[in-house]
Amino acid sequence: MPTPSVSIPTIGVFDSGVGGLTVLRALLDRVPDANYLYFGDTARLPYGSKSAATVAHYTVGAVRYLQEQGAELLVIACNTATALALDDVKRAAGVEVIGVIEPGAEAATLVSKNRKVVVIGTEATVSSHAYRHALEARKIAVREKACPLFVPLVEEGWVEHPVTEQVARIYLSEAFSKEARDADVLLLGCTHYPLIKPLLRQVTPEHVAIVDSAESTAQEVARRLESWTMGKTKPPLASTTRAGSAPHLRFFATDSAEKFRAMGTRFLGLSVEDVLHVDLKE
Ligand code: DGL
Known about the structure:
This protein is α/β, with parallel strands linked by helices.
């Protein structure tokens, strides 16, 4: 029997680099019937140490590019870009935009029994207090802790390395000290941290559940698409149709396509092939 044709949305996923592929991986599990356009701003990463104005400027430029390529829904997979630039992106985009902070905060809220959460992220995400605001709005007490060394360690591939373990022990003992001692959720507020989840599990107090926003963001995307198909909200502008098959993936990187292919395969857990180098004008 021939496979029926289905309506396939085109989803643009943005990150400062390859880290957002952890979110793409969750999306592929949850929403396999979609075309994906992934943009990694590898030439200008890290975003985590940059100012809000710079991050907003870079992110808006990149999502405009994704829209030109046909993105009908945008996922800002980068925690730093969501924290610093979500409102700017929403204003600039003509399509729906989903960030990672609200879904992450919601997931942590559902898991925390004593309503106390520790959030770790980049310097910029933590200083923006975007997670604090999202969690406090849900009546959750928050301790935020910047862990700037994790991104370079993960990019180096040191995901099970004794140095990373030592760094994690120091960060987490500070994070869970004093009034945060009885927090029962560790929320991973950075795209890179899911890759060191097993190591973080080893050094996090046993009573603490580890939550990352990739899965809950993918759930939010699935919900949004469902509401489109149920006609509750505007359907995507230009959905294409094709027979049900593996998702179509295209990647755009502002630094070397070759480097993106190599590192991206590690983050996605799948072979990354169709990569185009993009030079965004300032
Ligand atoms: N993608 C960033 C985040 O989730 C981490 C890497 C960077 O600093 O650019 O915050």
